[in-house]
Amino acid sequence: MTMSPSGAAGLDIVVGAGGVGKTTIAAALALDWAHRGHDTLVMTFDPSLRLKDTLGVGDAARDREVAVGTGTTGRLAASLLDARATFDRLVVRYAPDRDAAERILANRYYANLSGSLAGVLEYMAVERLYEVASEGRYGRVVLDTPPTRQALDFLEAPQRIVGFLDSGALRIALKPWFDEHGRLVTARRLGPFGRGLEALLDRLVGLGVLRDMAEFFLAFGPLYDGFRERAHRVEALLRSAGTRFLLVTRPDEERLPETLFFARRLQEAGYHVGPVIINMCHPQAPGRPGLGRTTTAADLLAWLGARDERGLRAFRQRLGSHPSVDLPLLSGEPNDLATLDELRRSLAPGLVSG
Amino acid sequence: MSLLDLLADRRLVVVTGKGGVGKSLTSAALGRLIAGRGRRVLLMEVDPRESLHELAGVAPSGGDVLEVAAGLRLQNLQPVHVLEAVVREHLKLDVLVRRVTGSPVFTHFVDAAPGLKELAVLGHAYRLSRGLTRFPGGPPDVVVLDAPATGHGVSLLGAPSAAAHVITDGPFAHMASELAAFISAPSETAIVVVTLAEEMPVQEALELRDALGRSLARVPDLLVINALFPPFEREAAAGLGPVLADLWRERRAINERELARLERTWVGPRASLPLVPVPRGPSLVAAIVPALSEAVGHDGRSS
Predict the structure, then answer these.
(1) How far is CA A33 from the centre of its chain?
(2) How many Cβ atoms from other residues are within 10 Å of residue B218's Cβ?
(3) Residues B68 and B28 sit within 8 Å (Cβ to Cβ)
(4) What was the ipTM of the complex prediction?
(5) Could you count the other beta carbons within 10 Å of the beta carbon of residue A341?
(6) How far is B227 from chain A (nearest CA, A)?
(7) Is the Cα torsion angle A147, A148, A151, A154 positive or negative in sign?
(8) What is the pTM of this model?
């Protein structure tokens, strides 16, 4: 097993908008690390589980690592991540005892909504990354991130969860609101007026909902410190020198502003930004890149080639000295190891030094 | 009655699909076609980064309602603004409203509460369609919603029924189930799925269809297959050199394979749109409108 000098795994986090080829690039890059002799894990959180098609691993790879038969010097494993399973594990780990954990896991609120809590998917991705990175079983870990137009969501997830925990919403919720009979405590203290208040709340939201929510947050209380501290450590991992962000985009000029914006935000926030990957560039073609009524397929190809060439020029100019790698549009779909291998060969020189 | 007539009769048309397949383009083109049927259409975008305005040929709105053509308006909707409006409606007093919406508890709650933004967006469309909310220039007849990418698309459409499942009594429960009924009623809400004729987007379109069946017990009304390469012509390709000829043949072969797969597996109307050499903007919308109109404009719901 190969480790980077510090003993910690090197991390590549592949980010970008939906439809730019993140999943494929993550797989090709992981394949390349394995070719270079590193034991490598590629993880995806993509809800449509596309990586399993690309790597030929089935649902078995959901939340556990499955070896990919690549015949490379380093082992390659893939895992498909599940927000709910990761969240459950966290609950079990940070709950003070088994009973507390059970109470949360059985709560109706948690059971229905833990998977859809905003940012949970993103947070659980980095959380699993942290878990895998600290176990040290892999020399390299490549993370494909959830599809999002707002790629920043992904990075803001840990802060957002900490922000929520710190905001006071939880402290308010953590007060014991209901007595053993399921009546509102405050309402009881207030006498007849309190009963009126209780009736009003019941009419507005329904006491049943409030009880479920209150129970969930009460049960979540003991986890608060562990969760919060963990989020800070996850954050530190994302900023560490061994972690690199690879931003994937397409050569269309209209994508330039958001790509530059994201790269700048990453850098300003202290993350390490690797080469920008400009994917799916159409080759240049002879012919008139024309419009008009008599457009032929040749004109279309010429137009696509010219458009991407113009886009690439704009990207290179605006990126200045920041490195970039451009990848051609493959004629085949990257759904087998042979095509992935072709892709990794064009990818590697610009991405891997040493 | 053509499929277009049916779509124009709905209150809400949700356009969804994987990232980068052309949802905004399809929304803009459908908006035009429905407005062309004499309906007042609102194109609604729920992305913090505005992009529909480019296709409509207007400047970014910053959330305002913009008139882009006769009977066609455009709005970039921020869910948090909808929620603030709800607070305003209930509290009335400005001081109180500011205290609530300015508090970190509100901000974080809106950010973190499961499904709240989705409910806000769909609730907004619902209230518009029922004339329950004031709208500059009068309420639209049809809202065309350019939904977020697939994974989020399912959670968007499934949010009301998920909420109705958790919240079982009280007015919230009532609202959630009313909204769930609105979304699952084929007479009220249309669902349009957009894909490319490539393996992964088609896979996601099929998964989306299955997920819709499970969570809403309904099927999409239309599948739009965007950006098809032109049919391969050996003679024309010969003049392009081996790289381009290979690219053209292979990309078209992928398109044909996926079209055949959809032919086998997708029950219901489909519309195929060509890849056209036109930059993103109103002229791109104009370039695909004829193909879309051709597919949905016939009587007897052609596919």
Answers:
(1) 20
(2) 16
(3) no
(4) 0.87
(5) 15
(6) 12
(7) negative
(8) 0.87
Strands laid side by side in the A243-249 sheet: A66-67, A76-80, A40-44, A140-144, A10-16, A243-249, A276-281, A324-328
CA distance A7 to chain B (A): 36
Distant-in-sequence, close-in-space partners of A221: CB < 8 Å, separation ≥ 6: A170, A174
Mutate to test the interface with B, among A52, A53, A164 (most CBs of B within 10 A): A164
Report how far residue B176's alpha carbon sits from residue B163's, in angstroms, rounded to the nearest whole number.
6
Residue A142 main-chain phi, psi, to 5 deg: -115, 125
Confirm if A107 and A219 have CB atoms less than 8 A apart: yes
Integer Cα distance of A252 and A309 in angstroms: 9
Q: What is the pLDDT of residues B158-183, one digit of tens each?
A: 888 877 877 777 667 788 899 999 99
Residues 107-166 of A with CB under 8 A from B: 108-109, 112-113, 116-119, 146-150, 160-161, 163-164
Q: Which residue has the tokens 């850098």?
A: A267
**How many Å lie between the alpha carbon of B137 and the closest alpha carbon of chain A?**
31
**What pLDDT digit, counting tens, does each position of B76-105 carry?**
988 888 877 777 766 666 777 777 777 766
Can you count the helices (H) and strands (E) in chain B?
A: 13, 8
Rg (C-alpha) for chain A, rounded Å, is 25
Whether residue A19 and residue B20 make contact (CB cut-off 8 A), yes or no, is yes
- Describe the strand order of the beta sheet including B222-228 as a list of residue ranges: B66-69, B72-76, B41-45, B142-146, B12-17, B189-196, B222-228, B270-274
Pair of tokens at residue A45 = 């959180």
Q: Which of A17, A250, A297 sits opposite B230 (nearest CB)?
A: A297
Alpha helices in chain A (DSSP H): 22-35, 50-55, 83-94, 98-106, 108-113, 120-135, 152-166, 169-174, 185-189, 191-204, 207-220, 224-239, 256-268, 297-319, 337-351
Taking alpha carbons only, the member of B282, B32, B44, B41 closest to residue B146 is: B44
> Side chain identity at B32, as an amino acid letter?
R
Distance of CA B147 to the CA centre of its chain: 4
